Amino acid sequence: MNAEILAEQANGVLTITLSRADKKNALTNSMYGTLADLIERAEADRAIRVLLVQGDGDIFTAGNDVGEFAAIAMGKGPEERHVHRFLRALAKSTVPLVAAVHGKAVGIGTTMLLHCDYVLLAPDAQLMTPFANLALVPEAASSYLLPLRVGHVRAFEMFALGEPIDANSALAWGLANRICASDQLRAEARRIAEKIATRPAGSLGAMKSLMRNAQTLIAKMDSETEKFEERLSSAEAREAFSAFAEKRKPDFSRISAH
Ligand code: COA
What we know:
coiled coil, 2-enoyl-CoA Hydratase, Chain A, domain 1, alpha/beta, 258 residues, isomerase, peroxisome, binds coenzyme A, globular
């Protein structure tokens, strides 16, 4: 178990809290490993009827740890990349997944919401997918799921410009169910999760597998991973990661497409 992922089980709900607040809940390889373990555990443990994910600190998550991206780009990444197991577990999960999002949800913080079944936002929630700012490509099957959900032009804008979408737009675009006052977000998410947990789990699981084709999602994830890995070691990505580490804006103007 990773100390930066907290898990608590009560009334049929396994609550997962991203808890690396000093780094804005940026997700590390080890955190992905724990998240994957928990989603896999929920699939096998009949006592877990609903998963609820939330974040500690002032934002939901800043997405993948950029320092770890940089290490991978330099060939110094971990031997086993747990993110892939996490993404597959999300694609295959038949346990209803509720998310409570406050502040920013960056990159995979937003794309994981496309795998959630009920999304509650605080009024300050901002969804952003700045893959192009890091010279990367979308992941988590979001290159398929986001255009499907919000239409091509909005998805392109989110991916290419990486600017935050506020809670009202996210709601209007079908990325969330409801906006709820910040001081009630956790309690309300728990109330909804516990309500879903009272419904017949077998029926809900069958419903989820009918509503989401896991094989299609995994095939899309695999093709995204191929391009993602290629992009990670590009000159563009090296510039983006150096800029992040040096706290400056990246300059892509002198790097050609090939
Ligand atoms: N990976 C690693 N560290 C991160 C991080 C990330 N994705 N996001 C934030 N951090 C770290 C910062 O480096 C900083 O560490 P330091 O205190 O040791 O310098 C700390 O978290 C606080 O971040 P800071 O940028 O000062 O907070 P902020 O409130 O000004 O901004 C964000 C918050 C999320 C807007 C900003 O941190 C950000 O843009 N992060 C990168 C997001 C990103 O590109 N993710 C990958 C998407 S594919």
